[in-house]
Every structure is written in structure tokens, then in C-alpha cells.
Design goal:
The complex is a heterodimer of chains A (about 325) and B (about 260).
Chain A (H helix, E strand, L loop, with lengths): L2 H4 L17 E3 L2 E3 L3 E3 L21 E3 L16 E4 L2 E4 L8 H13 L4 E6 L4 H13 L5 E5 L10 H4 L2 H12 L5 E5 L7 H10 L4 E4 L3 E4 L1 E2 L4 E2 L5 E5 L4 H12 L6 E4 L5 H10 L3 E4 L2 H4 L3 H15 L15
Parallel strand pairs in A: 3-4, 3-16, 4-7, 7-8, 8-9, 9-10, 10-15, 15-16
Antiparallel strand pairs in A: 1-2, 5-6, 6-14, 11-14, 12-13
Chain B lengths: L1 E14 L2 E7 L12 E5 L10 E9 L4 E7 L3 H7 L6 E8 L11 E7 L3 H13 L5 E6 L16 E5 L6 E2 L2 H6 L7 E6 L2 H14 L3 E4 L15 E3 L5 E3 L6 E3 L7
Parallel strand pairs in B: 7-8, 7-11, 8-9, 9-10, 11-12
Antiparallel strand pairs in B: 1-2, 1-6, 2-5, 3-4, 3-6, 4-5, 12-15, 13-14
The chains are: A alpha/beta (about 325), B alpha/beta (about 260).
């Protein structure tokens, strides 16, 4: 059924155009639409401002914030692989104090929901970042990065142990009533276990997947292409892994699932939504096409019109088989 | 900074594996300055996945045209090398910070190593247009890798090749070393790390300012991803894309 047919009643008489409700509720927060930009790919929202109107999107997930400033890992930090990107940025960020001073005011002024991605080496680090931002007025929500493969301690070490996921989640939960999302690592045997741990500890949602541990070697130089040797793989290469993770998680928990990993097009996003996601994030695709997230949103809306789907949350029920 | 779909006007081979792409660059996109760059999406789809950065090699504001010089290295540059006039180009730019003009009383010495030639050609043209004379040194492995058709005309242009097949045998750094130490030179360079490191040593010994255009792998090109980190001697990093690509060469840890 095409767009034109969708706007006509069976008798052929014109009717009001079908307007799907794109809003999505994640904890106490209502996102205007299901499309966000993923942490680490959009800075704190300033760099791409000239290229994409963030306020058209549902959410901005910021570059990770840690208590202390981090210079990041040695260079090279990037390597492109077939349909993928390996990175080992190492959570480079200005630290909590500079974030609050230099970045937070603009984030708070945005119409688009802003969720600050929080990282740390200890449970206390996560709590201190969230408490610090709350004391400065807060943001719309937080995404706990318990799954970064590029830092020696913390990060993925938290994310692969359900007990630690629960501990960091419940500790942060006590520090804020705002929307709390836990970003899960795919580098585990069964991602449902960490998802259940986050849910049980009070998370409002989980996002999946963070990057997969990967490595690429320059055969001519007989040297790893990343200075840190291994890094996190993102991009279309990981999409099937992400879709499967979301499919399994969404059947194991009751809280919303935010799907990400390799979304380049609306069709990719719809795979995640059909698999069980309530919202999505566009990450690496922004590097190829700065307008990618907006095109994804447009495509989801067009698909909902075409299929006369009233609400984003209805999409997950449409998966056959 | 804008993202535009523009038209390729010509694509010519200028040396072995080197191509000059001339394309429409409308005034509304903003006039690039020497040292600034653009990123291009070589193809739709996911291979290659990322946009590729290239320095502007020229800009003609009266004709709304600009050029880049590329070297075939991988899938993206291979795809670009085969494009024909009339092809659509997905470009994002101008990006980053360019070169600052030399102080009065100093003689700019422009040093290009290999594919680093692009931004130096643009700088040379800008200096010429401003009536500032400059030296221009190009170093390459061998004559086949020298884009002779692009080399600036006029005085003070010198080529060095590793095998002596064109110009004097030696490196571009050798040509700079041969300059009189008491000259008041201002070094400008873009090239491989060993060349950039050699120029850093010469500049330090002689007290010459050194503006270096750096090259790094990039993902976003606009300062968001922190991927193109350039290590500094004093610790920490700068972003090649947003803090550079032109940096004070004396600050960069070249090896």
C-alpha cells in the first residue's frame, strides 16, 4: 500500500492524512521520536550543529563523561574494516567539571532530549558523575557506559558481570530519579543476563549493543592497525549481532530496549524495532552521512504511514514468525 | 562548513597513482583557505564506510571551482580515481584550520612530501596572489610519482627524488638543510612523518617557525569523535580535523 492509498478511506473519499504517533516513553522521559544519535559519534551536540538540526531528533546520547579529564588512547585510534569501523578512542573527554561548565548549559537548552553517557573505573566514579550533573541542574537522563571495550579497568569489566551491572545501576539509581539507561556489552555469552541485572537494579531501559571487541592487522607492516591493538567494532558489520541481541533482550525484560549497531538506513532501524526495540540510536552512519539519523527518522515515519502503524511501540508486535 | 552534492568537472592522472579532481565549489559553500580540507563519500553504501579527507589543492572563486589531489591507496581512492567528469560528488567542507601567512621579513619555504603536495600547491598560489614570493620543494620516491603538470611555475621550485630520477637525489628535507642557516625562513609542510620530523629538527635548530599540516585517519572530520588524535611532545593530543590540520609543527610528536 503506497502513501497515497494510505490517506484515502476505503470508499475513495479523502480523509485526514494518517499521522503516526512517533513519541516514545523511556522511564519518566518522553522522546519526541524514536531516533537518537549514539554516544561517541556526536560529541556533545555542537560539532554537527551546522549539518543536522538535533532538535528534529528524539535524543542525543553524549560522548562519555568521566570524573577526571581523559586524553584518550594513543594514535592510531581508528581503522576501517569491511563495512565496519574499529575504534579505540579511550573515552577521551574533558572531565566532569569542564563538562558542567562548558557543555551542560547548551545541552539543557536543547529541545531534543539529552542523555549524558557516563563512564568510570569504579562504582563511585559513575555515582560522582551523575551526582555532579544532578547538582548542576541535571539533564534529561543518563546512559551508563558499562560496556566500553577500550579502557583497562571499569567499562567492559562492569558490563560483562551481571552482579557488577546490578551494583553500578542501583548505586546510580539512588543518585537520580531521571531516566536511567544501561548500555550493554555484546561481549558476553548471554546478554539477557546483564539486561535482567540492569532491570532488577532499577534501570528504566537498556541500550544494546555497544561495540564488539575486534582487531585488524596491517600485514605489510606486521603490526596491529590500532595502537591499542584491539578496539571496538561498529558499523553495518555488527548489525545482525545487534538485532539478535535486541530480539533476545526484549523477550527477557519488561523495560524498553534501545537498539543500536550498524543502523545506516530506516530499514536497518525498522529491523531493530521489529526485533523488539522501542527506540534506536544512529552512530557510525553519521560519519558517512551527517544527516543519516534524520533520514532514518523520515523513513520510519513513512513506513508507519504506509503500514498504518499508529505508535512506534506497536512495531515490535508486527514481527511474523 | 556545508555538505553538498556537487559535480566533478574533470579527473586527470597527474602522476603514477595520483589524480587531480576538479569540481564545482559554489560560493555558498564558503571559500576554503590553504590547509583546509574536505571529506568525500566515495560511494553510497558501506564499502568504503567512512568519508575520506583531502586537502584543497586549489580554489578559484571566480569560476566556483576547486581541486583535490588524491593518491590511489585503497577502495575509496580507487573509486574516486575512476570517476569521470559529470559524476556527482558528496562533499563536506571546508573543514579545519588552514595556514597562517608568514610574518613580514620571513621567506616562506613550502615543503611537500608525496601526496602532501595538494595543500602546498594551494598555499603557493595564495602567496603568489598576495605578492609574497616563496620557495617550493617537492620530495618524492621517484620521478613517476611527481605530478609535474601541477608544479608551480616561476622561481624557487625544486624537486628531490630518493633515486635521483628527477631533480637532485635526496629528500625534501635535504633541500631545506641546504638553505642558508642565517636565512629567515618560515617552514610550511605536509608529508610523511619522517619528513615532518626532519623539518621539525631543522626548524628547532635554526629558530624557524614551522606550520605543519598533519594527516591522520578520521571518522567524523568535524571534531566530534576524537578519532584523529595527533600526539604532542608535551603529552596529550590535538584533533587533526578540528584543531588542525595545520598545527605548530614544533609541538607535534612526530615519531
Amino acid at each position: 500500500m503506497g502513501l497515497n492509498e494510505a490517506t484515502r478511506a476505503p470508499g475513495g473519499a479523502a480523509q485526514e492524512p494518517f499521522a503516526p504517533d512517533l513519541s516514545v516513553r523511556i522511564g519518566p522521559l518522553v522522546l519526541a521520536n524514536p531516533v537518537g544519535v549514539a554516544s561517541g559519534t556526536f560529541g556533545y551536540g555542537e560539532e554537527y550543529a551546522a549539518l543536522l538540526d538535533l532538535d528534529t531528533l528524539g535524543a542525543l546520547y553524549t560522548k562519555a563523561v568521566t570524573v577526571e579529564p581523559r586524553a584518550g588512547n594513543p594514535a592510531p585510534r581508528l581503522a576501517e574494516t569491511p563495512s565496519g569501523l574499529l575504534n579505540s578512542i579511550g573515552l577521551a573527554n574533558p572531565g566532569l567539571e569542564a563538562f558542567i561548565r562548558d557543555k551542560l548549559p547548551a545541552l539543557r537548552a536543547r529541545r531534543c532530549a539529552a542523555l549524558v553517557n557516563v563512564a568510570g573505573a569504579t562504582v563511585d566514579d559513575y555515582v560522582r558523575v551523575v551526582e555532579g550533573i544532578e547538582a548542576a541542574g541535571g539533564v534529561d537522563g543518563y546512559e551508563l557506559n558499562v560496556s566500553c571495550p577500550n579502557v583497562k579497568s571499569g567499562g567492559m569489566a562492569f558490563g560483562t558481570d551481571p552482579a557488577l551491572v546490578a551494583l553500578v545501576t542501583e548505586s546510580v539509581r539512588r543518585a537520580t530519579k531521571r531516566t536511567l539507561v544501561v548500555k550493554l556489552s555484546p561481549n558476553v555469552t548471554d546478554i539477557r543476563e546483564t539486561a535482567r541485572a540492569a532491570e532488577g537494579a532499577g534501570a528504566d531501559a537498556v541500550s544494546a549493543i555497544n561495540t564488539l571487541v575486534g582487531m585488524a592487522i596491517d600485514v605489510k607492516a606486521r603490526r596491529p592497525r590500532l595502537a591499542m591493538k584491539t578496539g571496538g567494532l561498529s558499523g553495518p558489520a555488527v548489525k545482525p549481532v545487534g538485532v539478535a541481541a535486541v530480539y533476545r533482550i526484549s523477550r527477557a525484560v519488561k523495560i524498553p530496549v534501545i537498539g543500536l549497531g550498524g543502523i545506516m538506513t530506516a530499514e536497518d532501524a525498522l529491523e531493530y524495532l521489529l526485533a523488539g526495540a522501542d527506540a534506536v540510536q544512529v552512530g557510525t552512519a553519521t560519519f558517512a552521512d551527517p544527516g543519516a539519523a534524520f533520514h532514518v527518522l523520515e523513513g520510519i515515519e513513512a513506513w508507519m504511514r504506509e503500514h498504518r502503524v499508529a505508535r512506534v511501540s506497536d512495531i515490535k508486535g508486527l514481527l511474523e514468525g | 562548513m556545508v555538505r553538498i552534492d556537487t559535480e566533478l568537472l574533470s579527473n586527470r592522472r597527474v602522476a603514477e597513482g595520483y589524480f587531480e579532481l576538479r569540481f564545482r565549489w559554489p560560493a555558498a559553500a564558503g571559500a576554503p583557505v590553504p590547509g583546509q580540507f574536505l571529506t568525500v563519500r566515495a560511494r553510497e553504501g558501506s564499502d568504503p564506510l567512512l568519508r575520506r579527507p583531502f586537502a584543497f589543492a586549489s580554489h578559484d572563486g571566480t569560476r566556483d571551482e576547486a581541486t583535490i589531489v588524491i593518491q590511489e591507496r585503497g577502495s575509496a581512492t580507487r573509486a574516486l580515481a575512476t570517476l569521470e567528469a559529470g559524476a556527482k560528488l558528496d562533499l563536506l567542507g571546508p573543514l579545519g584550520h588552514g595556514f597562517a601567512f608568514p610574518e613580514r621579513g620571513t621567506e616562506p619555504v613550502l615543503v611537500a612530501g608525496g601526496i602532501g603536495v595538494g595543500p602546498m600547491l594551494f598555499l603557493r598560489a595564495a602567496l603568489d596572489a598576495a605578492g609574497v614570493s616563496s620557495r617550493f620543494v617537492l620530495g618524492a620516491r621517484t620521478a613517476a610519482l611527481v605530478p609535474e603538470a601541477l608544479l608551480p611555475r616561476g622561481a624557487g621550485v625544486e624537486v628531490r627524488t630518493d633515486d635521483g630520477s628527477l631533480g637532485a637525489k635526496g629528500t625534501a628535507a635535504d633541500a631545506v638543510t641546504a638553505l642558508l642557516p642565517e636565512a629567515r625562513a618560515a617552514l610550511y609542510a605536509c608529508g610523511p612523518a619522517p619528513l615532518m620530523a626532519a623539518l621539525d629538527r631543522i626548524a628547532a635548530e635554526r629558530g624557524w617557525p614551522y606550520q605543519a599540516a598533519v594527516e591522520e585517519w578520521m571518522a567524523c572530520g568535524v571534531g566530534a569523535c576524537m578519532g584523529c588524535a595527533v600526539p604532542l611532545k608535551g603529552g596529550g593530543f590535538l584533533r587533526a580535523c578540528a584543531d588542525g590540520p595545520v598545527l605548530d609543527g614544533s609541538l607535534v610528536k612526530w615519531d
